[in-house]
Structures are given as C-alpha cells and as structure tokens.
Q: What sequence folds into this?
C-alpha cells in the first residue's frame, strides 16, 4: 500500500516537474500572464500568446480556497480559436484532513459535458508542515 502511494507521489512529482519545465520553455514562446487577485489571493489567471504582434487567448486558470486560505480547487480552460470560446480542460480538487492532502484530478469529457474522474492521478500525501 505504501509502495503504491510512494509510486503515485513520484509519478505526480514527475508530472509537476515536466509541467514546470514546459511552462519555462513556454515563456520563450512569448506568453503573457494576467493574474486576478481577491483579498490578496490569486483567484484567476489568463495566459495570452503573442501571435504576429497581437495577443491571442491561450489558457485560463481559476482557483478556489477554503477559509484557511488553502487551495481547494483549480480549473484549467483552453482557448478554442475555431469556436472562439473557452473550453473546459482539467479540474484539480484538494482535500485536507489532518496532515494529509488528497489531490483528485478530473478531465473534461465533451461528450458527457462533465468532468470525469481520473482515478490513476488521485494522490494522497502527508504534509508535515500542516
């Protein structure tokens, strides 16, 4: 059981590392970030991509927090330039219990028009700083 949790944690860490590297590389692709804050907390962020001298919609993020200012949900939307609209992509929910944090991933299913659980990506980790 602990080995399985450890492997999931390692896999999640690898995904986060590669995402960070991709984001770093993406900055070289002229990405512009516009953050939205409320009461000192980032509640949203829109990412634009410089395209032939103009800014084009690229990604949009929204964040929710609990009364202890811990993130409880993050949602990612991608811009569909053919439909000229934002489309749901990914929702990550964070649940806190004692010193444990459970991260649950949901991917948007356009046929069902709903977020669908991705059970292989659900991870529970202990956080000694809690």
A:
């Amino acid at each position: 059981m602990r080995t399985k949790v450890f492997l999931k944690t390692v896999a999640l860490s690898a995904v986060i590392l590669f995402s960070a590297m991709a984001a770093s590389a993406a900055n070289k692709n002229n990405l512009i970030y516009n953050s939205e804050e409320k009461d000192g907390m980032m509640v949203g962020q829109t990412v634009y991509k410089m395209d032939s001298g103009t800014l084009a919609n690229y990604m949009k993020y929204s964040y929710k927090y609990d009364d202890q200012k811990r993130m409880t949900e993050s949602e990612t939307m991608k811009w569909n330039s053919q439909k000229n609209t934002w489309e749901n992509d990914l929702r990550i929910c964070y649940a806190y219990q004692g010193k444990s944090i459970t991260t649950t991933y949901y991917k948007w299913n356009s046929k069902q028009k709903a977020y669908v659980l991705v059970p292989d990506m659900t991870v529970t980790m202990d956080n000694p700083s809690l």
